[in-house]
Amino acid sequence: MSELGGRRAPALHGVGDGAQGSADRAAGAAGGGFAPSALSFRSVLFDEVSSTNDEIKRAIDAGEAEGLVVRALRQSGGYGRQGRVWTSPEGGLYCSLLLRPQVTPIALPTLSLVVGMAVRRAVAALVDAPTAGAVRIKWPNDVVVDRDILHDARACAVGLDPAAQNHGHERFSDPNSAAFLQNTSSPVSASLKHRAQPRFCARGDADGTSSDAFASFSKLCGISCEAQGGGVCVGVGVNVAPPAERPDVGGKNEAAYVLDLAPEADFALGGASRAIDRVFDEFLAAFASLYGRWQRDGFAPLLDEYNAWASLTDREVTIEGRDGSPIAAGAVVCVDACGRLVLRSRDGTEIPIASGEAHVR
C-alpha cells in the first residue's frame, strides 16, 4: 500500500521486540490452551490524522491484507462506537486494526469483547497485581478502572483498613486525593503527596455504595468495531498520559490514565512516548493470542476470563438504546457465550441483551 488517506505513508514496519517478547510470554503463560496466532502486524505511525478508523476503512476498500495497524499521536476527528466523538489529544494510544476474521457472522459481535480483554491484559501486565485487580471490562466496549477497588487495594498497601476510609456519606475513591493522603504518614503515601490533586470523590449512602449519579468507574479505553466490505475495522483509544490540565467532568465519564496507575514503574519514567509504545506492544501481543483462539474455538473458551474481570456483574443496570430509550433493567448475571449481557429481572427472569448501553443504577 503506497498511500493512506491521500498522503504518502511512512514505511510500514513490524511490531517491536517488546511486543514479540510479550507474545512469547502470553503463549507460555497460557500453556496448551492458548495457541499463538498466525496474525502478523504491520504498523504505521502518523503525527496526526482525522481518524485512524478512516485510514483503515480506506485500506480495506483497497484490498489491504489483514494485520495493518494505523497509529496516530493525535486525531482531529476521532470517533468511537455509534459515531461518538473521541477527544484525541497527544498522550493517548490511538490505533485501528484491519482484520479479516474467518468466523461466522453470528460470532462477530463478540470481537469487541475480545479486544477489551486484550486491552485489560496489556494494562495489567504493566502495573502491580493489586492495581491490576481494579482494571475491568465494561460491556460492551469499554475498559474502566473501578475506583472503589483501586482505593481499597492502595489503602491495604499502606497498611490502612479500607472500610475505615468510608467517612459518613463520603467514600474517597481516589487514593491520590488530598483527603486520603492526610490519613497516613507512611513512606508510600509520602511519595504520592507531590502528585496529589483534589479530584472527584464518589458520594454515596452511609454503607459506602455509590449513588445513582456517580458510578465508581473511570474510563480507561474505548473500543469500536465496524464491518467494512470484506473486513472489520477495530478502533482502540487508550488514555495513557494525563493532560497538564485535567477537565472537570463532575464525576461522570471521568477519565483514567495508565500512568496514574503506575507512576513509578520503569516504563512510566521514560515519558509519555515510551509509555504509549509499551501499552501498544503489550496490547498487540495480548490481542494476537486471544484473536487466534477466538477464530479457532469461538468466544466460549474465553468466557471465564471475561466474566472474572467484568465490571457490571451483580450491579443493577438500565439498558438504553441508541435513542436513549430504556430497553431493559435488572441485575447483571454474566456475559454469555454469544456476548450478550444477561440480566435478572425482579421476578427472576433472565434476559439476554445483545446490544445497548448499560448504565449503573
How is the topology of this model organized?
Blueprint (H helix, E strand, L loop, with lengths): L2 E2 L2 E2 L8 H14 L11 E8 L2 H10 L6 E8 L16 E8 L11 H14 L4 H4 L2 E4 L3 E5 H11 L8 E2 L2 E2 L6 H4 L5 H7 L23 E12 L2 E9 L18 H4 L4 H4 L2 H26 L5 H6 L7 E5 L5 E10 L5 E4 L5 E4 L3 E4 L1
Parallel strand pairs: 3-4
Antiparallel strand pairs: 1-2, 4-5, 5-11, 6-7, 7-10, 8-9, 10-11, 12-13, 12-16, 13-14, 14-15
Key words describing this protein structure:
disordered N terminus; about 350 residues; 11 helices; BirA Bifunctional Protein, domain 2; seven-stranded mixed sheet; alpha+beta; single chain
3D structure, described in words:
The protein is an alpha+beta fold. The protein folds into two domains: 3-140 and 219-307, Bira Bifunctional Protein, Domain 2 (BirA Bifunctional Protein, domain 2, 2-Layer Sandwich), CATH 3.30.930; 315-360, SH3 type barrels (Roll), CATH 2.30.30. It has eleven helices and 16 strands. It has helices spanning 17-30, 52-61, 111-124, 129-132, 147-157, 178-181, 187-193, 258-261, 266-269, 272-297, 303-308; strands spanning 3-4, 7-8, 42-49, 68-75, 92-99, 135-138, 142-146, 166-167, 170-171, 217-228, 231-239, 316-320, 326-335, 341-344, 350-353, 357-360. The chain has a seven-stranded mixed β-sheet with strand order 3-4-5-11-10-7-6. It has a five-stranded antiparallel β-sheet with strand order 15-14-13-12-16. It has a two-stranded antiparallel sheet with strand order 1-2. Strand 8 (166-167) and strand 9 form a beta hairpin. Helix 3 packs across helix 10 (272-297). The longest helix is centred in the C-terminal third of the chain and has 26 residues, at 272-297. The relative contact order is 0.16.
